[in-house]
Amino acid sequence: xxxxxxxxxxxxxxxxxxxxxxxxxxxxxxxxxxxxxxxxxxxxxxxxxxxxxxxxxxxxxxxxxxxxxxxxxxxxxxxxxxxxxxxxxxxxxxxxxxxxxxxxxxxxxxxxxxxxxxxxxxxxxxxxxxxxxxxxxxxxxxxxxxxxxxxxxxxxxxxxxxxxxxxxxxxxxxxxxxxxxxxxxxxxxxxxxxxxxxxxxxxxxxxxxxxxxxxxxxxxxxxxxxxxxxxxxxxxxxxxxxxxxxxxxxxxxxxxxxxxxxxxxxxxxxxxxxxxxxxxxxxxxxxxxxxxxxxxxxxxxxxxxxxxxxxxxxxxxxxxxxxxxxxxxxxxxxxxxxxxxxxxxxxxxxxxxxxxxxxxxxxxxxxxxxxxxxxxxxxxxxxxxxxxxxxxxxxxxxxxxxxxxxxxxxxxxxxxxxxxxxxxxxxxxxxxxxxxxxxxxxxxxxxxxxxxxxxxxxxxxxxxxxxxxxxxxxxxxxxxxxxxxxxxxxxxxxxxxxxxxxxxxxxxxxxxxxxxxxxxxxxxxxxxxxxxxxxxxxxxxxxxxxxxxxxxxxxxxxxxxxxxxxxxxxxxxxxxxxxxxxxxxxxxxxxxxxxxxxxxxxxxxxxxxxxxxxxxxxxxxxxxxxxxxxxxxxxxxxxxxxxxxxxxxxxxxxxxxxxxxxxxxxxxxxxxxxxxxxxxxxxxxxxxxxxxxxxxxxxxxxxxxxxxxxxxxxxxxxxxxxxxxxxxxxxxxxxxxxxxxxxxxxxxxxxxxxxxxxxxxxxxx
Length: 765
Description:
Belongs to the vitamin-B12 independent methionine synthase family. It catalyses: 5-methyltetrahydropteroyltri-L-glutamate + L-homocysteine = tetrahydropteroyltri-L-glutamate + L-methionine. Pathway: Amino-acid biosynthesis; L-methionine biosynthesis via de novo pathway; L-methionine from L-homocysteine (MetE route): step 1/1. This is 5-methyltetrahydropteroyltriglutamate--homocysteine S-methyltransferase. It holds the Pfam family Meth_synt_2. The protein is an alpha/beta fold and about 775 residues long. It has two domains: about 1-390, TIM Barrel; about 415-765, TIM Barrel. It is built from 27 helices and 22 strands. It has an eight-stranded parallel sheet with strand order 1-12-11-10-9-8-6-2. Strand 9, helix 9 and strand 10 form a beta-alpha-beta unit. Helix 15 crosses helix 22.
């Protein structure tokens, strides 16, 4: 029985690629050094999977930044501002597209479906001159073959590529991106021809957009694309892979009738309804790649249940046509439990990271073939039983408190306009008040202090002194820049979710459970294994210390319940909304303690609210109802004079703007600049927003420093659709990934731009 892995983490078990990328970007190492690290990582991954017995091993799932950007470069789809002159695209153009450079901004970055992984959004239009400009897919196939590993090259499918793109600046928003299909298919044919010539016998096209609510003309594009590719694909086994949700009935029919395709891959973890479609009508003689091992969470598979599912599918498609697979790429999970020697042994037995999931896939394939490893299956059953019965999972008091939430909407007693009036009397802010989102640059020295404190190399007193000194510097800098509402810079936090999870019950933490978010940015999601509560205050000490350094308003900085949920590995033994309500109650306690301590502005970040939106429209209302409700729970009890902020970033918010309004925050800061001010269009179309709002005026994920004039121009565009008395001026996101040499001049220009516009508005009266 055959086995398959959709994709594998790229960063390496100890984030080797992250450090190599950052060293290269900082000009501390060469392109050859970076390529050497990448080559070693790829070789290790391929050999690991081959050694584990996996038959269908992917290649071209490695990336220096993002697989969609890789596809754009393969097609030569480079926006003119990057001055691409033709030929093979090198690192200069590639990383300028991803990160921007001193003279031009980066391309838009947004979330990959409903994950915390980000991709670079291709900018397309009728004038784009496509060309075969990156041979990465073929080169990596050859590289693996030289190591003795015959892989399945993976390409982002042509239709999903176009559907995940956007019209370039200057191109009508209504431009039909699928009209470019005829222009990109010849390049796909070239790639296929080279892969065949190199000896490939299988090829995998990732077409995840098939799980979305597609219109008939979009489904027709799949039929057209694969009919056009059929002759080029002749002689190859072709897998079309889907993931992240059920495949709707119409899309299932389109998919399973595609010409030239010999295999179909399905996510049977998040897409259990697809099993019924497979049982109803599956094309004879086609392979079924059954994604029964979860690629998006870290819980050990229920091997017996998965084996039962596979056996039922075997009766439909035949023993020789069933392939055991992961539900999606393992990119979304941590790398290897071997790197977690300090993790609690009981909890560790409940988990499976990417390396363990490879073993699970192989164990299931062998069991299906009659070679069941009883030791593996017995250990798995014991771990599942241990988790189910463990007293550390359940807390009756927490469950009762969450259950008591039902029946109330948890809204503040007065309207947002009345609250804003009360807050202005207390805060006395100028029009167009300036602020930042929370974090300031995390210096090498600051990271050293945190690391040494965790390792017990410095005392708690020394740690507190060092962090207070850093907060004092950040506060002084903001005062010198004349920012109106300050932040403490979050020097005590490595990660906004990890920091809170470490102080909440029901959470476990890893030493090396890193997951790629974008580029070199990695996060270490907490593991929510049990009921959640807050044993003691989490931020009050640092927030009050920061407020003592200034007379200006200091924001208390919290991460909201929905974001903590969506950026964690969440328990799978109860509905997600129940866990979210538990987290909301914990954050509510913290909000009320901050208010009692004299903090008058409290930001509750919900950066990931949009990211958790289900992929199918029919499921949107239920999710948004409990997600927005969870946010309101956190601050329902505060006084009118306490100003509640929230922050959102790097998603398309236009389709949920009414839910954002329903959150009833006093002020929302929201990503805007990197997405070409897409957010503003919703206000141009007539949506009325009465709370404070700060659409980001510059992109913090690029090292580029925007000019005062550029920021002022952005503010004026905002004022064309938003009232002066509700507009805030702020960056797109937190500043932790930037250097002070970039942050200081950018913020200086931001404040100066706000002052310029204030002067203009005053003189216009």
